[in-house]
Design goal:
One of its GO terms (molecular function) is peptidase activity. This is N4-(Beta-N-acetylglucosaminyl)-L-asparaginase. Keywords: Autocatalytic cleavage, Hydrolase, Protease. By secondary structure, the chain is α+β, with helices and mostly antiparallel strands. It contains nine helices and 13 strands. Strand 5 and strand 6 form a beta hairpin. The mean pLDDT is about 95.
């Protein structure tokens, strides 16, 4: 059995490439890396990699993580600037005995020493997004942070290796140096090849409060199907945050177990994800939470067309 699951429609092309590796007996780590790099390199996906949304100083700071569920090797970078593929840097860090999570200048120094590609990740399109948002915040009293999505993935190969990976530019107009859940083991991602893996997207500050990716894997280990595990974890954290704090931020989780079974849960409208395995070509789904149960529907061709049309449409500075 092999399979991949990923957050958001933006992962479709990457999952398609990753699945080809898995089809031919390749390693889950290679599938994850090539799949996430595909998202990182596409400038129109404004929340990951090249073209990612900048912080309040109009700098693109990126977070990424990689975890091997067979060896428990982990590598992560946070607030790294001017390097093309943070997922690859994170994977390289996972091979180190220590110093597995590096941030800011330290992450950049390591990446340079290891020969990773330097690249200005701030695009003209991202600058327009930034300037338009500054104006909107002043005139309409909007929150600056909307518009952030993490690409998170879990993969399973035919040799029963499982890998989890994440990559994001984080909150739009965040404070310099801010780090969310994505590079934090147990919150943004977790995987155990003997059980399964999970990855998160949403408001990192709230996802961290529940160590939610680990919680989903723990529930799967107890015997819950991935769908049950995702729903229990998301519903519980959503409820607990509302009880304790009066509100809950966006929480969306994907999971896959070591049998290739998968699950997804969210507390928002319009969450999309991608699934592929030996029985199914890469497919985009939309999900919605109805009274604690998530209903998944395959995205229509019209929805898929409008998705890409919206994201690649020309931008004009307001």
């Amino acid at each position: 059995m092999y399979g991949m699951i990923a957050t958001w429609r933006m992962a479709f092309e990457g999952v398609t490439k990753g699945t080809e590796i898995l089809k031919h007996g390749g390693h889950a780590g290679d599938a994850i890396e090539i799949a996430i790099k595909e998202v990182e390199n596409f400038e129109f996906y404004k929340s990951v990699g090249y073209g990612g949304l900048p912080n309040e100083d109009m700098e693109v700071e990126l977070d990424a993580a990689y975890m091997d569920g067979t060896t428990f090797d982990i590598g992560a970078v946070a607030a790294i600037k001017d390097f093309a593929n943070p997922i690859s840097i994170a994977r390289r860090l996972s091979k180190e005995e220590v110093n597995n999570l590096l941030v800011g200048e330290g992450a950049e120094k390591f990446a340079h020493k290891e020969g990773f590609e330097r690249k200005n990740m701030l695009t003209e399109r991202a600058k327009i997004h930034y300037h338009n948002r500054v104006k909107e915040v002043k005139e309409l009293q909007l929150k600056p942070y909307s518009g952030h999505d993490t690409v998170g993935m879990v993969s399973l190969d035919v040799n029963e290796n499982m890998i989890a990976g994440t990559s994001t530019s984080g909150l739009f107009m965040k404070k310099k140096g801010r780090v969310g859940d994505s590079p934090i083991c147990g919150s943004g991602f977790y995987v155990d090849s003997k059980v399964g893996g999970a990855s998160a997207t949403g408001l990192g500050e709230d996802l961290i409060k529940g160590c939610i990716s680990y919680e989903i894997v723990r529930l799967m280990k107890e015997g819950h199907h991935p769908q049950e595990a995702c729903e229990i974890a998301v519903n519980n954290l959503d409820e607990e945050l509302k009880i304790r704090r009066g509100k809950a931020g966006d929480l969306s989780l994907i999971a896959m177990n070591n049998k290739g079974e998968w699950g997804v849960s969210t507390n928002i409208e319009g969450f999309s994800f991608v699934v592929a395995n030996q029985f199914q070509e890469p497919t985009v789904y939309l999900t919605k939470n109805i009274n604690g149960k998530c209903i998944h529907e395959e995205a229509s061709q019209e929805w898929l067309y409008n998705y890409m049309k919206t994201r690649t449409a020309p931008l004009v500075r307001k």
